[in-house]
Amino acid sequence: MRSRIVENLGDVPYDEFLVYLMGPYKSFSIEELVPDDVEFDTANGLLQSWDETDGTYDHDDVVATLRQVQGALRTAPGLNAFLAVDIGIDLDELDAATQTIEFARASNVVVFVVPAVGKNLGVGIEAGSVLADLNDAERERVVFVHEEGVRSAMIQGIARRWDAAVYSYGDESELVDCIRAFSSDIMYRELRDDLDPKHR
Predict the structure, then answer these.
(1) What is the C-alpha separation between 156 and 74, in angstroms, rounded?
(2) Cβ atoms of residues 146 and 73 within 8 Å
(3) How far is Cα 22 from Cα 121, in angstroms, rounded to an integer?
(4) Is the entire prediction scored with pTM above 0.70?
(5) From the centroid of its chain, how far is CA 143?
(6) Which ranges of the chain would DSSP assign to H, the alpha helix?
(7) Which entry of 11, 84, 151, 168 is 20 to 30 Å from 160 by CA?
């Protein structure tokens, strides 16, 4: 999968360092996204959906933010940041849930961006399925970055259940800086063999 991802993206200085960017989305199928052997704590808000009546941004705003972050990371320091839609895999070939997990497994860093889109965040179930699939060492590559002011049981539940890295940001510049710093740390740890390097 790493080779396929790299081949579908443009050239950047660190083309082998994949940063998978995800954010909230409007709808999902619980049956499709939750692995059969995983139980989620709905009381802690891990199964949630988009609520357009409560939040600052709409879906297009979120996609635009992810694209801005992607462009910034690909420009400096030149990380191979991507969204799932960039790879162009047909759902008949690989369903959305499996794509998400395969992209996460293939990536050096997995980023969940959580802007103020309302109290219900569809990214929660996607995050849960990814974290449940990864082993402890691989989960160290996963980061949640939420906008200041977002108070979500989903974020608290993720942090508690999987000891996930969670940071906040005030604006887009801080968001990019946070992801750059986290990615740089992962790259450094790979170079020192604290984490197994990922190659094609």
Answers:
(1) 30
(2) no
(3) 12
(4) yes
(5) 7
(6) 2-8, 30-33, 59-75, 96-106, 123-133, 136-139, 153-162, 172-191
(7) 84
Domain count, the chain: 1
Contact present, 32 and 94 (Cβ < 8 Å): no
Tokens of 180: 């750059």
Per the domain annotation, does 37 fall within a domain?
yes
For helices 123-133 and 153-162, the axis angle rounded to 10 degrees is 0
Within the chain, which residues score under 70 in pLDDT? 25-58, 117-126, 151-154, 200
Question: Residue 113 in 3-state DSSP?
Answer: strand
**Which CATH number characterizes residue 63's domain?**
3.40.50.450
pLDDT per residue over 11-32, tens digit each? Answer: 999 999 999 999 875 443 444 4
Position 197 in a domain: no
CB count within 10 Å of CB 72 equals: 19
Domain span at residue 116 reads 2-191
Residue 200 lies in a domain: no
Tokens at 65, concatenated: 């933010």
Q: Which amino acid is at 26?
A: K
Q: DSSP characters for 130-176?
A: HHHHS-HHHHTTEEEEEETT---HHHHHHHHHH--EEEEESSHHHHH
**Rg of the chain over CA atoms, in angstroms?**
16
- What pLDDT is attached to residue 152? 66
Please check whether residue 174 lies inside any domain of the structure.
yes
Q: What distance in Å separates the CA atoms of residue 64 and residue 57, rounded to the nearest whole number?
A: 10
